[in-house]
Protein 1
Amino acid sequence: MTDVRTDLSAHLSATGVEGDLAELLLKIAASCVDIRKVVSGGALAGALGASGNVNVQDEEQKKLDVISNDILTDNLLALPLVAGVASEEMDNCQPAKHDGGKFLVLFDPLDGSSNIDINAPVGTIFSVLAAPSGEITDAAFLQDGRKQLAAGYVLYGGQTMLVLTTGSGVAGFTLSLDGQWLLTHADIKISPDTKEFAINMSNQRHWAEGVQTYVAGCLQGAEGGRGKNFNMRWVAAMVADVHRIMMRGGVFLYPWDKREPNKPGKLRLMYEGNPMSFLVEQAGGKSTTDGRNAILDVTPTQLHQRVPVILGSANEIEEIAACCGV
Ligand code: AFP
C-alpha cells in the first residue's frame, strides 16, 4: 500500500518555507539520518566509548559526540548557503571557507551522550540564525533566541523523529524504513496541565528554596496542597525529556543550583536553551529560567553560556513560578 503521508519537503513548501531555508533544513535532516546510522550501528560501527578528548565544557567527549559533530559540520559547511557553524563540541565557531552564506547553524550534535553506551535515547538539537554581513566570528552567533529562523531536534529513540519549528507551530516527522521524513505529528501542542515532572533528584540539596518547595509539593501528592499524585521521569537526555513533554505534557527542570555560582545552570543557552524554548513556546508551553522569565529573552554574551531551564506545560510552570516567588 502506498503511504500518502506528506514528507518534510512537501510540508515545508506547504507551510511557505521554500528556497534557501528549506534547502538548509533538508540538509540538516539528511545529516541526522547519517548520524542515526552510526547510532544504530553502536559497537558494530565503532561508535561506543570515549574519544579520549575533553571538550570546551570540560566534559569527556564520547566517540559519537565527535562523529556526529563531524557529520553536521562537514555537511553544513559544504553548503554555499551556510556562513558558519557553532557546536557544543567545538571551542569556537567555524566560519565557511566560501563567501555569501546567509545562515548560521548552531547545534548540540549528540545530546545525552551518557546514554550512548547503554543504548538509551539520544538526540541532536539545532538552531538556525541569519548570518550578519561581514566576518563570521563567535560574536555573530550571539543573537537573541527570538531571532531564530528555525529550530528543532531529532530523537534517536525507538523511532527516529524530527520535531521542527520555523515560527508557525511545531510539526513532527518520523523517519521511515526507506529513509523518508514523513509528517506524523502535525501541529504539536503541549497540554497546559500535567501530573508529571522531570528533574535530577540527586541534585536536590543544591537547589534554591523555590524549587525545593515545588518538588516537595509534587512528592506529597494527593495528601499535600496540590491535591493530586505526580509521576517523575528523567531520561538524562534533554531531547527525550522534552519530546515526552511535547507528546503528553509535563515539566522539565534543570534549575540554577548553588554548586558553581559561575555556572548558573548546566544546560547551554545557544545549543539547548534557545532551540528548545522556541519549540516549546511554539507548541503553547512556557520556557523560562525561573518559572517566569523567558529563556528567549536572555541576552547571549558567550557562545557556551549556561542557563537555568524550567519549561513545559504552561499552567504547571505558573505553579513553579508561584513557589519560586517570581
Ligand atoms: P550530555 O550530552 O553531556 O550527556 O548532557 C546531557 C544534558 O545536557 C541534557 O541533555 C540532560 O537533560 C542533562 O545534561 C542531564 O544531566 P545530568 O547527567 O546531570 O542528569
Protein 2
Amino acid sequence: MRRTHAVSTTNTIQHWINGAATPGASTRTAPVWNPATGAEQAAVLMAETSDVDTAVVAAATAFETWGESSLTQRTRVMFRLRELLVEHEDELAEIIAAEHGKVIDDARGEIVRGREIVEYACGIISHLKGGYSDQISTGIDSFDFRQPLGVVAGITPFNFPIMVPLWMHPIAIACGNTFVLKPSERDPSASNFVAELYKRAGLPDGVFNVVHGDKAAVDAVLDHPGIEAVSFVGSTPIAKYVHERATASGKRVQALGGAKNHAVVLPDADLEYAANHLTAAAFGSAGQRCMAISAAVAVGEAADALLPVLAEKAKAIKVGPGQDVGNDMGPVITAQARDRVTSYVASGVEQGAVAVVDGRDLKVEGHEDGFFVGPTLLDRVTKEMDVYTDEVFGPLLVVVRAADLDEAIELINANPYGNGTAIFTGDGESARRFQRGVHVGMIGVNVPIPVPMSHYSFGGWKDSLFGDNHIHGPEGVHFYTRAKVVTSRWPHVSRSVEAAFNFPTHG
Ligand code: NAD
C-alpha cells in the first residue's frame, strides 16, 4: 500500500517565530529532497543573523512570563503536548518518511521514543525537587532549588528529525526556559509541525521557536549574547566546533557527536539471536542512526559461524521507499550521502576487505533516481582501513575479527568514538567485564541499540560528546537549570548568636 504526504514543489518552509509561521528577512533557500525519488519536494528558508536575532528577542520576551510560570502550568502544557503527539502520530510519521526516507514504522519508533521525553517532562515537579535540611546547624536551615537559564538553543541533525529535538526542548521548556531550535535543513517540516502542536497545547507564543538554516544560522546562535546555553547533536567535527565557539562566547554547551558503535559477539552467544539483532541494528534506518551498529567484532570461532547467517539476513532485507508499507529499509538522505557510502565500500575492498554482500549497484524499480544503497557486509576489515576508522553513516556493517574478549575491548577503547556498544553473550562474567572495561557511554548486553530510556540520560564518551552533561533525563534537567542554596537563620529563634569576623563555623 502506497502512502503519500502532500508536499507541493512550490512549498517554501518558513521559520516559526513567536507563535506563527514567519518568512524572516533572508530569502535564501535550500532544497528539501524526497530521498526515495531524488526529486526536490520543497524549499526551506535559510536564516541569516537577523532572523536568529528576531527569534531570540521573541524568546527573551516570552521568558519574562514563562520563567515565572508555575510548575503546574508547565506540566499541563506537557500533558497536552503528549496527547497531541499521540493523536498526530500518523501524520508526523509520514512527514518524516517523506523528507528523511526512513520507513514509516521506524518513523513511528522515533516519535514514540521522543514522546517518552515529553512524558518525563510531565514529571518535572518531581525532577526539580530540591533538598531541605532542617537544623543543619544550630538555628539554621538549608535548602536548594534550581532555576531556568533563560533563552536556550538546540541544533539538531537530519537523522532523527523529531526525536533528537524532543531530547531537548520539552525538558528545557518544562524547566522554565524558552527555546530556539535550529533543526536540520534536510528534513525541516517535523519541527514546524511540533511548533503548531505546542501552540495547540497552550504554550505561550515565543516560548518555542524554530529557525531554519545552515552554518550562517548556527554561527548566529553560537555567538548570540542573548542565548545562555546550546545543545547540539550532529557529526563530531561540527560538535567540536560548536563546543569551542559557543563556550568561547560564554555559553553552557553540550555537543553530542558521531559514532562508530561496535557489537562484540562471543562464541557462547545465541548466534541466530545475535545475527537478527545485528542486522536490524546495522541496516535499520539505512544505518543512519548514531547508535547503529557499524562494526561487528566477532570473537574466535564466532566469526565463521556468524558470517553466513549475517549474509543471508542482509540479503533478505527489503529495500524501497519508506512510505511504502512492507519495506525494511529506505534510501539514504542525499545523493552525496549515497556516493560517500559507495566510495567507502570501494576503498574497503581496495584495502583488502571482503565484500560478502555488496549493495553498491542496487536499483529500486520505479525509483532509479532515489538515493538507495543496498545493505553491505564487509568481512576481514582491519583497524587501519578507512572503512573502519571513519564514521560512514550508511547501510554498511564491517566485521573485524578478534582472538578474545580482551582484544575486542582493546579495539573499542582505541577507537576515538565512544557513543554506544553492545555485547552478545550467554555469560554474565564476560558481560560484566565488558560493561566495566569499555570506554563508552551507553552499553547493551544482548541489546544492540542501548538508547537509554527517558529516566536515564543519553551520551557518549571521547569524541562522541563535548561538554559535561549528557542529554535528557536527570542530566538534561541539570543542564537547563542552575542551582541555588539558601542558608537561613531567624534571629528571634537564635538571638544569642554573635556575629563573628572569622569564617563562620556552626555547631
Ligand atoms: P551534521 O553535523 O552535518 O549537522 C548537524 C547540524 O549542524 C545541522 O543542524 C546542520 O545544519 C549543522 N551544521 C552542519 N554543518 C555545519 C557547519 N559547517 N557549521 C555549523 N553548523 C553546521 O550532522 P548530520 O549529517 O545532520 O547528522 C548525522 C551525524 O549526527 C552523524 O555523525 C551522527 O552520528 C550524528 N548524530 C549523533 C547523535 C548522538 O546522540 N551522538 C545523534 C544523532 C546523530
Protein 3
Amino acid sequence: MITDSPRESCGIFGIFAPGEDVARTTFFGLYALQHRGQESAGIATSDGKGLRVRTGMGLVAQVFVEDDLADLNRGHIAIGHTRYSTTGSSRIANAQPLVVESDLGTLALAQNGNVVNASALRTQMEPSYKFYSTTDAEVIAQVIASSFGYSWEDKILRAIPRLQGAFSLVLLTRESLIGVRDPLGIRPLCLGRLNGGWVLASESCALDTVGAQFLREVEPGEIVVIDQRGVRSTMGTVSEQRSLCVFEFIYFARPDSLINGRLLYLARQEMGAQLAREYPVEADLVIAVPDSAIPAGIGYAKESGIPFSEGLIKNRYIGRTFIQPDQRMREMGVQLKFNPRMEALYGKRLVVLDDSIVRGTTTPRVVSLLRKAGASEIHMRISAPPIRYPCFFGVDMATRAELIAYRKTVDEIARFIGATSLGYLSLEGLVKSVGLPSEDFCLACFTGRYPIPVQLEMDKLVMERP
Ligand code: AMP
C-alpha cells in the first residue's frame, strides 16, 4: 500500500422496512456482497429514536453473532458495509458504517469508492474537526454533516460538488435511509422493493438473496431519500459524462449481478467468445481459473468448439490471494488455493482463461501448477486488456510500478509467466462484449485516461514508491 489513506472498494447495503427484521436482512445482504470486501463489516440501525452500530474485523459471519443481530434489531432502518482495503489501513477505526454528529442529528454512512480529493478536504477541516479514522468515508460524512442545510437532502446537495471521485453511499439518519451515487456513476448502486419496504445494494445479487425485487439502478448524481412518506429522488450534480468502472464487469462484481441492464455472467461469457475470435489456437481442452474466469472459459469453449472442463479445483475457504498482506503470502496463496486435476490435464494442450493479470503473481504459479500436472501446452487467454495504470477510484490494483504490464511488453509477460502463448482481450473487444457504448465507462486502468484529474495522486505514488 502506498499511503495510509485506504482505497476502498466495498459492498454497501441499506433497508427501510417497518415490520421486517432489518438487521438480519442486512446481515444476509452483506453476505451476498462478501466478495466486495473481506476485511471488516458493520451494520447500523435506527428505530426512529436513535442509532445503534456494530462493526468488527473480518468476514460478515465472523463479526456478527446472534446477540448482535437481536440487539441491532430494535429498528426499521439499517445500513451495512463490507470493507476491502489494503495493508496499513486495516484497522477497526476504519470499519464502517461510521457515525458523525451534525445540527440535524446523528448520521451513519457506508461508502463504496474512493474520493481523490479526500486528503485536501481533510486538511481544510482538521482545525475544526477531530478525525477518528484514516478513511475518506469519514471525510465524506463530515463534509455532509457540516454543510449548510435545513434537510439532509440540502446538505448532501451542497456536499456533492465538493467531492471528487467515486462514491456510492448509503446513509442512515434517525428517520431515513438515503442512497447517493457520484455524478460519474463510477461504482454501482441499485434500488429494490421488499414487502412494501425498500432496499439499496451495491449489486443486484444482494437483492435476490434477501428476496427483494430489483427496481432500477440509482442514477449517477442521484440522491434517493426513503422515509415514512415513501421514496423521493433528487438529481444532484448532473454530469454529461458517465464513467462506470469496467472492472466491475471483468472481475469485481458477482456474475449473477445485473449492471446497466447487462447480466455479468453473459458479458463475461461473451468476453471469452471474443477472445476465441481474437486469439484462436489448436488445443484439446479449455479450462478457467476458478471462480471468476469460468464464464469466460465457457464462452471461449463454445465459440472455438474445444471442450470445456474443470482443470483446477479451488479451495473455496481460502480468501482472495490478492488481499493477502504481502507478496510472499500472496505467492503461497496460489498453491493453497488451487489443485490441478492431473488425470484430466496430463499430456493435454490447454487454453487457460483468467480474467486479469495485475501484478503477475497468480498467473506464473497457475502455469507452473499446470505444467507439473503434465499439460503439454498452455495458452493463456486473459479477458481484459493489459492493466497499465493504477485505479484511484476504489479497486485496489497495486501501484503503477507493481503492475506487470507497466513494466513489460506482452511478449515479455508471456515469457515471464512461462506460457506457450498469451492473448489479452482487446479494448474494443471488451467494450463490444459488455454491449454498452465505450463512453459509458471508466477504462483508465487500460488507457490512462482518467475521468477526473488524478495528477496529485499520481505524484504521491511516484514520491512514495519504495
Ligand atoms: P495478480 O496475481 O496480481 O496478477 O492478480 C491477478 C489475479 O487476481 C487474477 O486471477 C484475478 O482474478 C484477481 N484479481 C484481479 N483484480 C483483483 C482485485 N482488484 N482484487 C482481488 N483480486 C483481483
